[in-house]
Amino acid sequence: xxxDASIVRFRVSVAASHWILPALGDxxxxxxxxxxHLVCVDELLGIKSKGFDLEVxxxxxxxxxxxxxxxxxxxxFPVASPGLLSKTPIKxxxxxxxxxxxxxxEFTSPWMDWQRWLPSxxxxxxxxxxxxxxxxxxxxxxxxxxxxGVALGWKYYVAPALERGELRICLDERRxxxxxxxxxxxxxxxxxxxxxxxxxxxxxxxDETRARFSNY
Length: 216
Fold this sequence. Notes:
Blueprint: E1 6-12, H1 14-20, H2 24-30, E2 34-40, E3 54-59, E4 66-80, H3 82-87, E5 101-104, E6 131-134, H4 137-145, E7 150-154, H5 155-164, E8 168-169, E9 175-186, H6 193-212
Parallel strand pairs: 1-2, 1-3, 5-6, 5-7
Antiparallel strand pairs: 3-9, 4-7, 4-8, 4-9
């Protein structure tokens, strides 16, 4: 590592880190002059946001403290492991009542709530679904690959697992919302050359991700 390398501090969520990490080798090769400090944390928990040069934030954009650029739109569909689906096929929303549902404990998007997906007008004789909660999305998806239940798959984060055959789409139903992943560049760092190079790389990588998984 060059001693005169520029340091860029980049904050991502645990889930977003699984999207960023596979491509870091290409970034390091293309930009040896930049020392990228990747901080992975879902909640700031006392870490001041202004301590970072860039962030990946989930929301609707327009933050006053920074410039924001849309990266990945939100598309959600139910996914599960092949093993679980071989034991309990899911052909309709009613079938979701027969399997454990993996739920993110805290969420922003309304479509990440299983209650929005379950069939309405359920009969009193039908049992309530088993809902298992997880504090991070990465943990939730890992539980899904182990066959512990059905997860609500965020398209761009589950697509690699779909390609590998670790997960399958359960229902041909998709939901989208106004929420997206955004690249956020703090205003006081927006003119820094190294920060701009990292920002440009992230935006190009997002374009490539959307193109790669356009069929899902």
